[in-house]
Amino acid sequence: MIRKAEKLHKEPVAEEALGMRLYHNRECESYAEHWHAGLEIIMTVKNGCVITAEGGCLEMEEGDIVIINSGILHELEMPPSGERLILQVDLSFLYNLKGMEFVLFLLQPLTRLPAGTVPAYRKVRERLERLAEEYDSGEVFRESLLGAYMTEILAEIGRGGYFSSELAQQFSRSGKQSYMRAVMKACSYINRHYRENLTLEDVANSSGFSKYHFTRVFKQYMNMTYYEYLNFRRVQRAEELLCDQEMSVTDVAMNSGFSSLSTFNRTFKTVKSCSPTDYRKRRKELEIQGIIKKK
Length: 295
What we know:
five-stranded antiparallel beta sheet; AraC family transcriptional regulator; 12 helices; DNA-binding; transcription; transcription regulation; RmlC-like_jellyroll
């Protein structure tokens, strides 16, 4: 049986304040093409599964781990029996982990860690299992430990250089690591201050570069300009605020860092291919249909 998932519409990634959701999936149902706004990590505990994404077919063996990046269309084909650990993490949770926004932007659409064959595998699996144990425990203060384990998982992925081939080559070249650290620092600064009246000079100073040098380096390593990244963060915040049907679009714009409603409307449409009002309307319709849950 194939379970339907609304194509081109993201499913809710986190139902609760934890900012993540974990499943011990033992169902034989497959999932039609869908995508998530956040990060998805799947580990095949017993038997494998087949993941179709990016025009290719990935046959997962028992014990394999795959990281599916945000916004990637994919299908899941499950075997008649088996078990998978499926972790979905909200972007808002991930961006609060210091330095991790850089790793997220450099990740490939799909990152596969075959069971026991790559250096990072053992550490990633160990931390993923600890995270699952802590998640299931329901203990107080587990949020802090979940964040720590998630940080370690992404750090191991980052250290392992599981980026696109071009970015991995850049990372390995002599002297490039200092540039990457500077860009990471700049991203963290933007994530803390994006709702303020940020200037290019402010962010460049935080990285220790002149604004001209910073502009070139940021574009080289992030594959987008500083302004594109800043707008992405602001629009991401706006998406969260638009879930509140009582908040006016103007208030959403002001609380997301935009200086005017017209700028907000134009930027949102550029990033999301629809207006904020249409986005809110579509989300409301999906909530009524039960395709996504109300936040």
